[in-house]
């Protein structure tokens, strides 16, 4: 797969047979990754006999070492510490396994940060803890359901977030209030996975730009203005003090492309409870609970898919996937949007009655919720099926 960017040029991606990205390359950056059978990142390449040189670095899918980073875990499987070149981070959790405090021990100082949640598990405040143990430099968050729509900082500056559709997590714009009632609107330009690549003002001037490694760690972040942009993958917010991404119900570590806590659903979460997704380019997990492929593949229920909107990057991906053929599943707002998506991808198809017994070569049918059936328990929403 390849993608082209007007300033970054072309980036080429290479996949393995399971859909994991093994390498990417463009004019400024080249990265190669290796995985074990459970999708854990490996430091070294596989040997010819399929063995690896670092089996001792992973236990119970808990990554202990990767590219100079060292990790430890507590009895619940949560990340307890992360050692980097500039210091060691220690993580503390509450009884609900939510991260409540981070202590960062550096060579000449110790920093502490606290995090506060509401009854629904949404983070409503983050702050620094001074030497006296008091909270300072607070940032407050306001929510609409499970989407963060506003943050207010200590200096009373405020950012209001607008998304591409009423149920999605891909950012569209940001209304910035600095002093008094002065406001300005900034616009997001996102990658195919919905991650912000640029932030522009009303005149189209670039205020912020960022390019990413394969799992979301910045390669280069440029701020052309005094604007801090912390949105990352859909549903994620960067905590610059730790480098972690707050992902609503878990925290994500872009250094290793996985969550810091195991999936709260336990064994039903799959063979690797720390995995974010098969890859970060064509998959999202906006809540830190359920991965969803933008290509529509591997979904256990149709209702778990994110709603894609016409004109969005997800809509373009869906169109190309349907054009290419093969099995795919996509969720749109309503019946009309489903017909539009199918027409964009396949051209004009003839409408056929539901469950028609009349043979046809090129056409489509509207089917109801079929979750009660034995053959299609995953189809728990009305849907379209077609032949071409």
Give a written overview of the molecule.
- The chain is mainly beta.
- The protein has 2 domains: 65-269; 294-387, no CATH class.
- Helix content is 6%, strand content 38%.
- It contains 2 helices and 32 strands.
- The chain has helices spanning 313-324, 335-346, and strands at 2-5, 9-15, 21-25, 30-32, 34-35, 41-42, 58-59, 62-63, 65-66, 69-73, 79-83, 88-93, 99-105, 110-117, 123-129, 135-144, 147-153, 158-163, 171-177, 183-190, 196-200, 206-212, 218-223, 237-238, 245-246, 251-253, 258-259, 283-284, 292-293, 350-351, 363-367, 383-387.
- Strands 9-10-11-12-13-14-15-16-17-18-19-20-21-22-23 form a 15-stranded antiparallel sheet, with no helix packed on it. A 4-stranded antiparallel sheet has the order 1-2-3-4, with no helix packed on it. Strands 24-25-26-27 form a 4-stranded antiparallel sheet, with no helix packed on it.
- Strand 3 (21-25) and strand 4 (30-32) form a beta hairpin.
- Helix 1 crosses helix 2 (335-346).
- It is globular, with a radius of gyration of 22 Å.
- The mean pLDDT is 88.
| Total number of strands | 32
Mean pLDDT: 88
Number of domains: 2
**End-to-end distance, in Å?**
25 Å
List unreliable stretches of 5+ residues.
Answer: none
What would you call the shape? globular
Number of helices: 2
> Mind telling me the C-alpha Rg?
22 Å
Q: Describe the strand arrangement of the main beta sheet, using strand numbers.
A: 9-10-11-12-13-14-15-16-17-18-19-20-21-22-23
Largest sheet: 15 strands, antiparallel
Could you say which structural class the secondary elements and strand pairing correspond to? mainly beta
Helix content bin = under 10%
Strand content: 35-45%
């Amino acid at each position: 797969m390849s993608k082209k960017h007007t300033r970054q040029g072309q980036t080429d991606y290479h996949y393995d047979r399971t859909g994991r990205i093994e390498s990417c390359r463009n004019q400024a950056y080249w990265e190669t990754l290796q995985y074990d059978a459970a999708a854990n990142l490996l430091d070294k390449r596989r040997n010819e006999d399929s063995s690896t040189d670092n089996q001792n670095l992973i236990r119970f899918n808990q990554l202990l070492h990767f590219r100079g980073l060292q990790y430890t875990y507590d009895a619940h499987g949560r990340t307890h510490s992360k050692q980097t070149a500039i210091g060691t981070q220690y993580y503390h959790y509450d009884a609900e396994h939510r991260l409540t405090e981070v202590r960062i021990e550096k060579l000449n100082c110790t920093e502490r940060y606290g995090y506060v949640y509401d009854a629904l598990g949404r983070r409503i405040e983050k702050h620094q803890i001074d030497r006296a143990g008091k909270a300072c430099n607070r940032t407050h968050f306001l929510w609409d359901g499970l989407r963060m729509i506003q943050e207010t900082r200590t200096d009373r500056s405020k950012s209001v977030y607008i998304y591409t559709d009423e149920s999605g997590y891909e950012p569209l714009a940001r209304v910035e209030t600095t002093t008094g009632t002065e406001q300005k609107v900034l616009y997001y330009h996102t990658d195919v996975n919905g991650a912000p690549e640029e932030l522009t003002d009303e005149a189209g001037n670039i205020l912020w730009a960022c390019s990413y490694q394969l799992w979301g760690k910045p390669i280069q972040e440029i701020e052309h203005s005094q604007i801090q942009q912390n949105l990352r993958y859909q549903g994620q917010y960067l905590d610059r003090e730790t480098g972690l991404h707050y992902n609503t119900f878990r925290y994500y570590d872009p250094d290793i492309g996985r969550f810091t806590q195991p999936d709260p659903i336990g064994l039903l979460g799959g063979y690797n409870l720390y995995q974010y997704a098969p890859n970060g380019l064509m998959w999202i997990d906006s809540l830190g609970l359920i991965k969803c492929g933008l290509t529509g593949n591997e979904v256990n229920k149709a209702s778990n898919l994110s709603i894609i909107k016409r004109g969005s990057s997800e809509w373009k991906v869906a169109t190309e996937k349907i054009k290419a053929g093969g099995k795919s599943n996509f969720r749109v707002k309503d019946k009309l949007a489903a017909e539009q998506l199918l027409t964009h991808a396949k051209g004009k198809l003839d409408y056929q009655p539901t469950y028609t017994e009349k043979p046809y070569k090129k056409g489509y049918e509207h089917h109801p919720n079929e979750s009660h059936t034995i053959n299609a328990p995953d189809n728990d929403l009305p849907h379209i099926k077609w032949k071409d």
